[in-house]
Amino acid sequence: MANIRTFIGVRASDRVTRNAASVVRRLSATCEGYRWVEPENLHVTLNYVGDVVDIEVPELCKIIKQAIEPFHPFEMSLHGVSGFASASEPRVLWMGVDQGHDELTELFNSLAEVLHHWGVNKERNEFLPHMTLGRLGRSGRWNDDLLALVHKLRHHDGGFCQVKEVVVYSSFMEKRGPTYTPMATLRL
């Protein structure tokens, strides 16, 4: 038996992902202190589950499927670049979800209820749907060029797409960064 680092998310369309990847390229040209998300890894995280024993993955997928059964496909749009902890001291750079925000929050809440016994979201922070673009490295620093570009992109139109499925991902850390692999794709 092995533990699999697991999370639940939604993928954007190829067009929206290309748009986000273009933003990542622009941001990365201004600052090298971040670990930038590769285009194939761009997604909106719903819930981080953590380590799951491999033989428990089918049971986990079953309860996730039950939790999302009441939901229907919906439109999602990405809009604006910002940062956590703040746009002026960004440790994480992200693109926010505009349309679809409420639906993603409802999905998060539904999943949080069934995942509670797995130890997920016990100390819940407020859920803010977003697509992570990059994270500040341990020795990294933001710079004025990056902050100026984030400010310029605060109203960036990331495009829209239809969300038709929820994906259960495994995450493996490698030297060049994480690899996210879909373990199950569950239709809304």
Mean pLDDT: 92
- Class based on secondary structure composition and strand pairing: alpha+beta
The CATH homologous superfamily name equals: Cyclic phosphodiesterase
Shape: globular
Unreliable sequence segments: none
What is the architecture at the second tier of CATH?
Alpha-Beta Complex
Q: CATH class, anyone?
A: Alpha Beta
| Ends apart, CA distance between termini | 31 Å
Give the oligomeric state: single chain
Helical stretch count?
Answer: 4
Describe this structure in words.
This protein is an alpha+beta fold. The protein has one domain: Alpha-Beta Complex (Cyclic Phosphodiesterase, Chain: A), CATH 3.90.1140. It has 4 helices and 9 strands. The strands form 2 sheets. A 5-stranded antiparallel sheet has the order 2-6-5-4-7. A hairpin with a 2-residue loop joins strand 8 and strand 9. The longest helix has 15 residues. The chain is globular, with a radius of gyration of 17 Å. The model has no long low-confidence stretch (mean pLDDT about 90).
